[in-house]
Design goal:
single chain, 278 residues, three-stranded antiparallel sheet, 4 helices, 13 strands, 21% strand, globular
Length: 278
């Protein structure tokens, strides 16, 4: 019995070490920390602190017609005649049906879109089938990384459709990297000028306009995890000051804003540019 207990203990220790390998050294966190931050939360209207209106009367039965006794042989007065119980006309029924259909249509329009599901899992990172239904606040820092990453698409008249983060900041790919297998070669001073988009573990990635099946991450030389699109590691450019900037486009003939399929956008001279976000 003692030998079996030791065997189980050793197996548990091995599993624990495996859980912190690779990108797991970013920290496990708690369930509360893994929750997607919500910017706005709804609240129910408070109940009436005074309770029910004491002057409110019970109106049950109010307004019901009272039967008046009439002398035999005397016709009832027209003012006291019982209300007609004739069936509603076809026009009235049609109007009622149309009103009911309109209410149903309005109810359908207000039905919220279904929440995204997990489309792919890569070790401790979950890639979802679409954008989050919650409001996510992107991190201000481009170097710290986050446990929640958004990928969006943006249209540009100059270079076409390219990928941005949740804050609208342009994401680039580097020709010196490889995607089969995924590998990042931009380290040291290069990574200072081109900060990698990092995902912390356990992490969640919500792509919008990008196929979740081609989204993942690659472990860098320093042990951090860099988001990839179709195997290509993605980066920011330090000289992009605001959303829509494309100052790194075509730089040195090797840096290009990345397309939703992982390809390169069309080459343009590196100069301050702006784009419109969907």
């Amino acid at each position: 019995m003692m030998k079996r207990s030791r065997t189980i203990y050793v197996a548990a220790m091995i599993a624990g070490l495996a859980s912190v390998a690779a990108c797991g050294n970013q920290g496990g966190g708690t369930a509360a920390a893994d929750a997607v931050p919500v910017a706005v939360q709804g609240s129910e209207a408070p109940l009436n602190p005074q309770g029910p209106d004491p002057q409110q009367e019970d109106l049950a039965g109010a307004g019901l017609p009272q039967a008046d006794e009439q002398p035999e042989g005397v016709a009832p007065s027209t003012s006291a005649a019982a209300p007609s119980e004739e069936a509603p006309s076809e026009d009235a029924a049609s109007d009622a049906g149309a009103a009911g259909g309109s209410d149903e249509a309005e109810a359908d329009e207000t039905t919220p879109a279904p929440s995204p599901t997990v489309a792919k899992t890569q070790k401790w990172v979950k890639i979802f089938s679409g954008p989050s239904q919650e409001d996510i606040t992107p991190p201000k820092s481009r170097t710290a990384g986050s446990k929640v990453v958004e990928l969006n698409t943006t249209e540009s008249d100059e270079i076409g459709t390219y990928v941005t983060d949740g804050a609208g900041r342009t994401l680039y790919r580097f020709d010196n990297d490889s995607n089969k297998p995924p590998k990042s070669t931009c380290n040291g001073d290069c990574a200072t000028a081109w900060p990698p988009l990092l995902i912390k573990s356990p992490g969640k990635i919500f792509p919008d306009g990008v196929d979740p099946q081609i989204v993942g991450y690659v472990e860098r030389a320093d042990g951090t995890c860099q988001v990839t699109i179709n195997g290509w590691p993605v980066y920011y450019f330090v000289a992009d000051a605001k959303p829509g900037d494309l100052n790194g486009q075509g730089l040195n003939g090797k840096w290009f804003a990345i397309k939703p399929d992982g390809g390169k956008t069309s080459n343009t001279p590196a100069s301050p540019s702006s784009a419109r976000t969907n």
